[in-house]
Amino acid sequence: MQQVTETNLYGRYPDLARLTKALQRSRGEFALFFVECNVISLRRALVDSLATRLQSLPIEVDLNNFQGRSEYVFLDELLTTQVQNTPDNTVIFLFGLELLLPTQSTERLRATIQQLNWRRSFFSRLQRPLVIWLPQYALNLLAEETPDFYDWYSGVFVFPSDKNTLQAMEKNTFQSLLRQGVHAADRSNIAEKKQWLHTLRSLLAEHTQADSSRARLLINTGQLHHSLGHYEQALACYQEALVIQKTIGDKKGEGTTLNNLATTTYARGDYNTALEYLQQSLAITQAIGDKKGEGTTLNNISQIFKARGDYDTALEYLQQSLAITQAIGDKKGEGTTLNNISQIYHARSDYNTALEYLQQSLAIRQAIVDKKGEGATLNNLAATAYARGDYNTALKYIQQSLAITQATGDKKGEGATLNNLAATAYARGDYNTALEYLQQSLAITQAIGDQSGEGTTVSSPNKS
What we know:
This protein has helices at residues 6-12, 14-25, 40-54, 72-83, 106-118, 120-124, 136-145, 147-150, 163-177, 184-187, 190-206, 212-227, 231-248, 251-267, 271-288, 291-307, 311-328, 331-347, 351-367, 371-387, 391-408, 411-427, 431-448, 451-459; strands spanning 31-36, 59-62, 92-95, 129-134, 155-158, 178-179, 182-183. By secondary structure, it is α/β, with parallel strands linked by helices. The strands form two sheets. It has a five-stranded parallel β-sheet, sandwiched between helices.
């Protein structure tokens, strides 16, 4: 890969020379500049090149380092503090303003934007050039929703990333999203999820070509939205990904995305639509001979019928799924299916049969080192022991599950496990300990934005 130097940056980006001259002319007085840059590594190289040409280090203020304190009064205080005891001709670079731009609610966005408009006089009193670095989507939001503030600028400079830089950034993002088999949607707190969403939106703004990489970015964005309860946004991401996959003929990806659409519609309680998506997915996986995908889809269809209380039909689909996973040697899928079969028997109060399937599932998941799956099966073993009144055994399994979820960073699983610990302590009459576990569980589910888990935690003491 070609090394990025100051010389080739200035040769590649005419706007870099324009920005340098604009900053040199504006020293000692206020001027507002916007820089559109979607990739952090490119931004770093640009900042370093500017510092060299300006022959002075800029004041760098990155709001990513101050998450949780996003009030605009804090921004005023932060900038005031940063410029104290610095030369009058020092340039201020502000990063991360997109974190203060909520994208889920137009009403909230406009209220936030109004705060920026009110602070124009504060910014002007800085008596220094202020450069606000933003990804494309955030700059577009400012232009559309804050014409008064946006039109106040002295210049806008655009730095698109090259193909190699973008590919490297995407690869690193995909690797970081999935850690130890746990997606960021399941292990991150709300602030971290929002940061991931900003990163993915920046990459999507840069990667406009309708190809498999853009579809993958959209799917990961959808998963994060789903985990935050933003089901409409999740569905929109999946739908766009599906259109791309149909266009490029990615049948396998199409089947997977239909499963994701089903998961989100299922979470909304729309079982009929979820089933339609799954039936479409099943038809595709069968047509292309994707046995692994077929097994997964059959498993997911079973969950629709289980939710409806149609255990016989659910079991039929699970048995079909089990036959496929065993035939193709898909041990992870087999472990999942055995676990789900156990839940049908558990729902029928056939705890002995449920236990047999759970033990088979646990053996497989331990053998293939599927830690997340192992934690889930241990949790279900605990639930079965609990249902039989064997609280000591239930406690043993739950503690093992908790250790795994904590070790893998599976925050969603940890919250559910703490909730189960609370139920066990409650059943034993240890109400103080139960309350402690519930409070820990609630703190986690609230921190990661798991609305379904939060509701379960709040209602747990009333369960039999």
